[in-house]
Specification:
Cathepsin D, subunit A, domain 1; six-stranded mixed beta barrel; two-stranded antiparallel sheet; about 50% strand
């Protein structure tokens, strides 16, 4: 598991905000701290909560809300679902599901994020 932390611009139905985002190859889901959502987006309660394992052995989180946000990397507009997690250590965590969806690669040697040019072209059309 490795991580890269960079600022990203986010947009929701209520407004926009920039926050530090952790690109985490060890996190399955993308997550957001509820305080970061102030004036950005209203979380949606899930019909059935989602229980996920954490990095700590035997520790699980019960997630009850999610939100859809647009975010920008180098002027490329991306979007995904984010699980709302109180007590999250970062504003936002970009997990593997989002990385795979948008074919985002992490270059840990140079601490950079790479978006596949084919995906960028498709988004810009």
């Amino acid at each position: 598991m490795s991580i890269i932390r960079i600022p990203l611009h986010f947009e929701g139905s209520l407004g926009e905000k920039t926050g530090y985002s952790l690109f985490d190859s060890g996190a399955s889901f993308s997550c957001v701290h509820p305080d970061f959502l102030n004036f950005l987006e209203v979380p949606v309660k899930m019909h059935r909560s989602l229980e996920i394992a954490t990095a700590a052995e035997g520790v699980y989180l019960n997630i009850k809300e999610r939100v859809v946000l647009d975010f920008y990397f180098q002027d490329i507009r991306l979007s995904d679902e984010f699980m709302v997690i109180p007590g999250l250590s970062e504003d936002v965590i970009i997990g593997v599901n989002t990385l795979q969806k948008w074919r985002i690669k992490l270059d840990f040697e140079h601490d950079t994020v790479i978006v596949d040019p084919k995906v960028a072209k498709a988004i810009l059309k």
